[in-house]
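Dear colleagues,

As part of the handover before I leave the project, I'm documenting each prediction I ran so the next person doesn't have to rerun anything. This entry is a single chain, and its sequence is reproduced below.
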Amino acid sequence: MTTTIIITLCSLLLIAYLFDYSFKKTKIPSVILLLLLGWLVRQGTMLFELKLPDLSSILPVLGTTGLILIVLEGALELELNKSKLVLIRKSFFGALGPFLALSFILAYVFSQYGGYTFRDSLINVIPLCVISSSIAISSVRNLSSRNKEFVIYESSLSDIIGVVFFNFMMRNETVGLDSFGIFGFQLIVICIISFVATIGLSFLLSRLEHHVKFVPIILLTILIYAISYLYHLPALIFILIFGLSIGNLNELNNLKFFNVFRTEILDKEVMKFKELTIEATFLIRSLFFLLFGYLLETSEIINTSTLVWAVGIVILIFAIRFIQLKISRLPLKPLLFVAPRGLITILLFLYISPENMIGMVNKSLIVQIIVLTVLIMMYGMITNKPGKSEGEAPQTANDPPSMSDSDVSKEITVSK
């Protein structure tokens, strides 16, 4: 039995790798194929009457680990310098504006239509409003460098905004000045912890000479996140600060304080650390979607009672995105199509406590919205013609000059 499980697991992960590897040719996002593969495995176990233990409790663990690694990987890829300020500003407001607009519109509709409290409605719709960086970033590898960078910034920031806002709403029965005061204090505390932890982890990364050095760093990162989360701190901020700090060492080289880290050695170690993070993210992400697909019931996928709501919400998602891109003067094609929902949506949905859940937001609605948004993104990628439909928006005086792919020092090869 053990050997059979090992063979099955290895085979499934190798198939997952083929899905990811073939994306450049097929333009089919691997998340769709992984969910389908997991569902087919479920049908196979039922057909042959195989009895497996309940695996549902593993899903939140995989999801949380995947969330940490995805945000860390995204932060490691983000560049912080003056030439990126306009892009960062557009990405931040591109992530924040649609998120807030969609959250409050849907919460109002659900509270009025279903008779739920506005707070419960808001908690339940937040997962639907977060762009999945795990799917978006890995799906835009063939876009121009400028569009690709925008998606990386936007989706990574959307993850963080969504998780922080979700935790804020879950932990506050009522929202007032006291709530914001406590949240502000928590932000200060987590920033101090992040600064100290980043220095410590960077020092270890540059000084450890043991043949195993990256796994302890990742484990310490997850441990600090878990402890911070346990004390109700916005722990994802720590992951962002740590990733941004060690991913932008070139901006810190001029500071004498950082000489203690032997930055020339640390640079090389960070590159290896990135590679390991990418590999680990792929593994956890693949396992998560395979398991989620396995746990899906056929009736949940083809639930017609939620399909109308799913289609309406997806239309609203892309209508708001259309307005946001127009305001930001960014190219509609292909960016309009890149707003997938995925791992973060599922994970936040699983974290909703039973007393806060509303009947209108269920697993069927979540799955249908994920599938629809990913299919729309797939259509955008398939119909996109590099150099033509992907043309850059007109440059303004405040915009940084466009970069060609040959000018990019780091090719984004992530497989989230």
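The two ends are 31 Å apart (CA to CA). The first helix runs from residue 2 to 21.

All the best with the project,
I.
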